[in-house]
Hints:
The structure is a homodimer.
Chain A: H1 7-14, H2 18-26, H3 33-46, H4 52-57, E1 64-69, H5 75-90, E2 94-99, H6 104-116, E3 121-125, H7 132-147, E4 152-155, E5 166-171, H8 173-186, E6 192-195, H9 202-217, E7 226-228, H10 234-247, E8 256-259, H11 262-274, E9 284-286, H12 292-296, E10 303-305, H13 308-321, E11 330-334, E12 337-339
Parallel strand pairs in A: 1-2, 1-3, 3-4, 4-5, 5-11, 6-7, 6-8, 8-9
Antiparallel strand pairs in A: 10-12
Keywords (chains A, B): DNA-binding, Transcription, Transcription regulation
GO molecular function (chains A, B): DNA-binding transcription factor activity; transcription cis-regulatory region binding
Pfam family, one (chains A, B): LacI
Amino acid sequence: MGERITIRDVAARAGVSVATVSRVLAGNYPTSAASRAKVQRAVKDLDYVANAHARALAGAGRKTIAVLTYDVVSPFFAHVAQGVEMEAAQHGRLTLVASTGSDPARELALVQMMREQAAEAVVLVGGVIEDDEYRERMARYAQALAAAGSRLVLCGRPAPAPDVPALVVEYDNEAGAHAVTSHLLGAGHRRIALIGYQPGNTTGEARVHGYLRALDDHGVPRSDAIVHGVGFGQHHGYEAIRDLLREAGGKPEFTAVFAGDDRVAAATVVALREYGLDVPGDVSVVGYNDDPVAADVTPGITTVRIPAEEMGRTAVRLALAGAPPRSGPERHVLGTHIVVRESVAAGPGR
Amino acid sequence: MGERITIRDVAARAGVSVATVSRVLAGNYPTSAASRAKVQRAVKDLDYVANAHARALAGAGRKTIAVLTYDVVSPFFAHVAQGVEMEAAQHGRLTLVASTGSDPARELALVQMMREQAAEAVVLVGGVIEDDEYRERMARYAQALAAAGSRLVLCGRPAPAPDVPALVVEYDNEAGAHAVTSHLLGAGHRRIALIGYQPGNTTGEARVHGYLRALDDHGVPRSDAIVHGVGFGQHHGYEAIRDLLREAGGKPEFTAVFAGDDRVAAATVVALREYGLDVPGDVSVVGYNDDPVAADVTPGITTVRIPAEEMGRTAVRLALAGAPPRSGPERHVLGTHIVVRESVAAGPGR
């Protein structure tokens, strides 16, 4: 049976090197279509099954990268997971995914399982409410994983305490918020409502800081800032707009909206239309993330591109690059940039 | 160190049963918040790390479910993966994910790796070009996995040859296409253009069959059918509409469009607008999948809901339910239903 066939037999049968067979079997690109075909044929002819026991001893049982997100379907999480999976595959690793539903107890249980599965790295994705309990939890994960020869990677969330041996891969969230707010200010808008973010959540707060810093830089007094934090998610943006317009008797005191993410922005456009306000004719709208929806709706929504897939790839690349840091977090920040579409028009200042 | 602490110590410390500890650690719901807190506390106090070696011997090393999709970010694949992950977690399993990029050689290598990782089941998701090579490949996977005590689950793709020991979880794709086409016919449309599907792909072909069957049932001659298969994906729908309108000199010979999926439908609305045609005023549009975009665009797109998450859950439930079938596929079909939004108006027949 296949159990007795070795990778050398496959290489000999295919007339390629053992390295090529292993690259092909690992999906470890680049390999030519020709060698893939030869190896595939040889694997089939020999009904090759790598010897699980021998490979386990050789550490193949360890060849997984784990990624933990709040859910698997939000575009940001899905793209980070896709990046993790693609980079892991290039290194011959499979990817373990799990979703926490934002439940710390569930997160703890999953990190425990992933450690027991001997994942080479555990990647935690997404913003958090950063309190002592969180910092303490991350420190525990990092130390426990380091002790097991694995490592903790925090992706899109802040670095924990200075003595925590974690890898941190962030995107420049605040700079993106500053840039897109400046884009609105540059177009002549001054009263800009920031809506649809979760107060206390590190991702949302960084966007608020970028927004406020941009107002400062353009000499707009903080008294003109309009910040209505209700939570990420479509319905929150919808409610926020209705609240703001109801307070203002249907006539908005703002000429532009900075939505916490693109789905909020899409909902904002719908809500504004219900009050007879055109986008961008009456009110300009920008979002964040560059989710597919930003390109799918009319008008296309000007937004901030997050390098989600590249963050996932970077997390894996760094985790596999070397030994866990002796102490302290190792921080990497990827850039963001504006994607200009049709949802911004000139404001009263123009 | 933690290596010497057992799950019994944790249970004793937490004052709960070993089963409760294992359920909590496995994220195997339901568990009360109170017991989760107790167990979490005990795990922390004891710095508990389950003995990986002992657990591996006990089969914990096998506790993974593998899901293989073309990519991780398309809503359909992401929702199936989410369902797999949620159900797997409820059974104390972690989920392995990998994307094939539709490359058979890569699929083969990944199934091989997943078998070496001793996944309890390997779930392959999504439509295929069903040819002899495909049937032969699926038969090989199913037999190889069954021999390893694992099993093959085909999700959203047709059952292989009758002698292949695979589980098949499908959705009633053709019935959904029949229903949404009938919805258009019932609204008075007769010339309905079906666009944006990949000829030969089982998912697309089933939608064409449902469309044609609906035309037959409503007495619309096949000569009035308009089928323009170019491939799934937004740009294809866009091109298809431009082709059809260019041929017709800008004046469409159709009053409704059945788009192969919702992103195609969204692109169709944009393309029609560029020719000065209003949706649904001049042309009605329906899609398929009930992807988020269908609800996010204006007008909201009438579409067919696929139970993607439930398919993933069902795949895992069935795979863990019992021993691999002695021979032949075991087929389960989940229902689809129309989601009515604002993209359909009365046609000339009304």
